[in-house]
């Protein structure tokens, strides 16, 4: 059963990536740090229970590109967002990072200010994403569908889309896309 679920996670993730990349405007959502879309198995405990795109999703000549199909353990970054969300809501098994655009604020997302993170925590790699999601839950009592990361010195602002599955996340991404014009 576990292997079947893992295959299903990979298939659903690949299908969502195809839908996302088939939209000719999706490239507008890709930040400089690139994008990843992840999806966890039920009860995920670590990065190897979360599938994502190896090397992330990129853009060239206004086209979405990714070199390899989704794989488990492919992204520590998006996996930490998902795993932390699942600590509070086991249904929130998928996430994607995209650009920040001021119009996204009209959707009333949770806004994360990195200044709220202690200086000592900031200096430790692989803590900010966990802290961001925990803080969102502590302040709102739920895992939000959208978290805006205001960024910091050397850290690009961005938006995290969270959902139950990658199809739902991509649908939310398209809603964000409808709010922005060409760059």
Automatic annotation (TrEMBL):
Limits of the Thiamine-phosphate synthase ThiN domain: 12-173
A Pfam cross-reference name: ThiN
One GO MF term: kinase activity
Alphabetical keyword list: Kinase, Transferase
PANTHER family: TRANSCRIPTIONAL REGULATOR, TRANSCRIPTIONAL REGULATOR PROTEIN-LIKE PROTEIN
Protein name: Phosphomethylpyrimidine kinase
The species this protein was found in: Metallosphaera tengchongensis
């Amino acid at each position: 059963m576990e292997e079947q679920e893992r295959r299903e996670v990979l298939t659903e993730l690949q299908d969502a990536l195809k839908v996302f990349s088939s939209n000719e405007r999706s490239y507008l959502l890709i930040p400089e740090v690139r994008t990843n879309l992840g999806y966890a198995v039920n009860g995920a405990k670590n990065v190897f229970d979360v599938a994502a795109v190896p090397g992330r999703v990129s853009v060239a000549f206004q086209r979405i590109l990714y070199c390899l199909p989704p794989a488990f353990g492919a992204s520590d970054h998006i996996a930490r967002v998902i795993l932390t969300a699942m600590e509070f809501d086991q249904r929130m098994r998928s996430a994607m990072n995209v650009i920040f655009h001021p119009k996204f604020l009209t959707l009333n997302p949770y806004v994360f200010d990195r200044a709220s993170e202690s200086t000592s925590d900031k200096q430790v790699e692989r803590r900010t994403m966990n802290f961001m999601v925990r803080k969102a839950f502590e302040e709102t009592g739920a895992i939000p569908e959208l978290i805006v990361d205001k960024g910091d010195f050397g850290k690009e602002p961005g938006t995290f889309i969270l959902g139950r599955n990658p199809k739902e996340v991509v649908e939310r991404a398209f809603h964000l896309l409808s709010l922005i014009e060409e760059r």
